[in-house]
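User: Quick one: structure for sequence A, then sequence B.

Assistant: Sequence A:
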Amino acid sequence: MLETVHVAILFGAGLVAVSIFTSLLSMRVGAPLLLVFLLMGLVAGEDGLVGVNFDNAPLAYFIGSLALAVILFDSGFGTPIKSFRLAAGPALTLATVGVMLTACLLGVAAHFVMDLPWPQAFLLGAIVSSTDAAAVFFLLRVGGMKLRDRVKSLLEIESGSNDPMAVFLTILLAEVALSGQGFASLDWTLALTVAQQLGIGLVGGFLGGRAMLMLMRRVRLEPMLFPLTVISLALTLFGAVSVVGGSGFLAVYVAGVVAGNADMPNAPTLKRFQAGVTWLAQIVMFLTLGLLATPSQFGAVAVPAIVLAVVLILVARPLAVWLVLLPFKFTGRETLFAAWVGLRGAVSILLAIVPMVAGMEGGQDLFNIAFIIVLVSLVVQGWSIRPVARKLGMMVPSRSGLVERFELELPDEARHELVVYRVSADAAVATGHRVPRWARPSLVVREGRSMTWRQAGKLRAKDYVYIFINPRYVPLLDRLFAKPEGPDLSDTAFFGDFPLAPSATIIDVATTYGLPTPPGLDTTRTLAETFERVFEGRAAPGDRIPIGYAEIIVREVDDEGRLASLGLGLEPQKPASWVLPGWLARIVAPLNRLRGPRYRGS
């Protein structure tokens, strides 16, 4: 018995370690890390090199659910509340209506491609209908891409909140398929069940997050026990909400948002701990689901599964996204990019276990099909997100040269951070600009030697400077120590050729630069008021309004959402080179006219 335990520990810990080291190689070739972890599970499984026979579907579902709850809590904890101000409406609509549309469209395709009965076909559609939070958050946050704020907020909120709808549809359709009566077994309680899942999840998550804050502000714990307690409370909330009939996944995400946007004690320690635990949860979840799969069975369903994956990527997801975002004035580029970032991942594989656990005939085939669809999604979409984002103009040039940033735990309401810069050769301080008193470094590291600011004298390129500063001054430090960075993008190209004051009016700009006044706008309003009205108070860097052959572009927005600076671009971005088929364009033309003037959002 003891020997078996030791072997299990050796195998489990060794597999996690090997997966982590393998990720170093994947970064060199640009492979999505989550795909690497999934493939490592396949390699270790019964058809792989190690040959471990793991077929415990209930245990895999338990491990996956636990890991997903941890991931969603951390995802919510790291989502700023301003993201909801930018994209809550379209994101939540996409997370509900979009999931149902995707499930229906893929279900129709599955019925005709694989000749599945309608309940099983729609069940397969529901299984792969939601985007994967782990995959999306990893690629958009850890992957180092800096996207336009509204698009990033849309994708993050959608991926963090669409799992409840997919879980509900999967369980519901599994019951329909098992009943033997088809859709005749459905009644009016369907809508009530949906409302119960979402309602209890939202309310339970909000109340749970507030309770978590109140409790952690009152208790005095050892610093290292604090993050353990928070994670334990989050998992307790997940279980409690699930037991009373709500969506535990939605509850932990909402609780994370509530706790992460408040003054949580020991927040810096908590964030670092959660980052490590979330990585471990992702690795364990993908490895477990990879172990559960049997690649030797894939051959029987490989061709139709790949066909369905193509339909999902190129038809079902884009059409659902386009229909859902139609009322929200997203541009063609933004809609196309949102459709492309529809990565399927561990959630789809996790839901594919449900038919197996329920003993459904053909459940193993549904699992294998879902697994192949996830592999195709991670390979095709995961590998291409960065070039697609660059091609569609969704990437924003980095305006920060920060190397590292550390939050400090200070008494009372004091807020300071330790920020580290590597001085750029083109930075203001390296070309003779005086360092203001408030920005003087506490430490300078030059060629491996540490010294005070006075000892260092004039700062040089490649110096590392360490500064204690209030976080709101970091954008000012960027102007002193760094230069804009970003592949094939520059500040001028993206943020305009000439600076404009938010207090200027459109007629002032048009007269000064010899531009025609745009139709449908009050030209006597200030630029700030115009952007406020056009973008409904949610303007973000990169948003633009056309004015003749030029564009007025948002450069900076302050912490309160007010426009800080604007730019005038004389070479507007070209529109996306994609159009709807003629017959579909004629059908939706009346809907397009309802949207009014088209402005380029971020």
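Sequence B:
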Amino acid sequence: MAATAPTVAVNIEALIAQRQLRAVFQPIVDFGDGAILGYEGLIRGPAGSPLETPAALFARANAAGCTTALERAAATTCIEAFVQLGCTGKLFLNFSADALRQLTAAGRNALALFDGIDARRVVIELTEQSTIDDLRNFMPVVAALRAAGAQFALDDYGTANASMNLWVQLHPDIVKIDRFFIQDIAHDALKFEAVRAMQHFAQASGARLVAEGIETEADLIVLRDMGIASGQGFFFGRPDERAPRTLGERAREALLAHHIAVFPEATHSTGASAANNAPARKMMVHAPALPRRATNNEVLDLFNRLPDLHAVAVVEGETPVALINRRAFMDRYALPYHRELFGKKPCLQFANASPVLIEQSMSVEQMATLLASDDQRYLADGFVITDNGRYAGLGTGESLVRAVTEVRIQAARYANPLTFLPGNIPISAHIERLLSNDAGFHACYVDLNQFKPFNDQYGYWQGDEVLKFAAQVLADACDPTRDFLGHVGGDDFLILFQSGTWHDRARQAIASFNAGALRFYAPADRLAGGIRGEDRRGNATFFSFVTMAIGCVHIAPGRGAQHGSEAIASLAALAKRRAKQEASGLVVIDGGDSAALLPALAHGETHDAGAAQK
């Protein structure tokens, strides 16, 4: 006769009393040596039942008013299973602040929470439900548990109740970064910067960071290389009743991978943003304004008293309503009889009644939209700067052009404004990371042959389209988790390959670009095989199609430090110059043979090497 399956309790109190809860464990891994530091103990209801998931269990417990009882039962179940399995390392147990208060209230022994296990092996995770209204009164609970030997972790940091305020006051031993910030961090620059900010604060506070929700090798290697100490997630193992004792082969290989992660770059990087945030008030000219009832004679008197004033604002109360340009006004008044005819008439007669108004908090980049507007009067008139709509001062068109230019030059050092690829500062930073980690790589300098004649013939607009096409081809040739692509400027790009298949990738990029570039030519030029134009000396010349050339320098592991980033850039430029003379468009030189290449460097064969360092 078949055995009868045990009845699953639907009442949460009965389920707890009948000990129908079961524990599963997920490993927490040290990135340094791949050791399992401990396990997070998680609770499950009866398999296949409506109460199997933690969400269902706690929802039922909350409705029944016995959440604390469920938390205590969950901890007891996890401790018993952990000890029975003979697991080593720490046991991470989830508790809400309310449950901790109740379980340690009225003089109860804190050690009662840890029946069967040394409290020094326990890490208490304050869960996202841990709203702590009165942290001062909660701190004695923390002190009692710490005195027993337990450590504290702040769970799901960055969301819900896991706030910086709690971090500062609780002084947790461990902070677990919420999976939202971890998943896809290899490709999300904002998540990367958020985690880096957490990392800086953890270093200051002495807390150890654990990255939750790691599911891919790319995310793991980025976290490893940015210095996060440990983590957990499906990539290391799913929660399991058997508590895995060692990492799987895939996870071990990822932790030991020799290649250096390519950090995601923000389009608006820190340095560019700092320059872009220069407010309009920094270019403000403090100047008096005239009321709208003022006459033209009063405008003339003001300009005569202030010879450097380029314009004057007209206001009604504190609100600017018009702007009078000095030169236009004075030129008009120089005409015969104009002062006699118009001197006592309202100044609005010769004013621009639709001046450009800019709030002083506006960034330079926001103001740059004016440069593309149809109304260019502001270049001569300048513009009015306001403070919450009230007149504050004036600005000149010249100062705006200068500020926008400075911002974009600075921004281009971080991200190229045409292709949005990393600029020279991120390029240099990645080279230094490769060198400091003794990583082997191929530095490939990319240039376009015959690009200038094409640009001269078809114009900058079409030339920009060719550059964007080249950037796309090169991006397609790269493994974004291993290969760094940057835009030095103009038609110069730099790839720092760590992919083992780098040679095939480079050849494919050349072939794809050379074939695709033909579509940018007019049908007649395609039939002719190129275009006619003038060389640098003004001589009539026939130019073939734009093609791609790639010069590569191989830097063996541990050999880069003998060169430095400037020497590597010079060698890459030398390789590129040679590649431009090769039919294949691809040349590779060994960075270890730099001594043999010194004559070529000394004779100026790398006259354009400095472009890689601009």
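The radius of gyration is 34 Å. Residues 67-85 form the longest helix (19 residues).

User: Thanks, that's what I needed.
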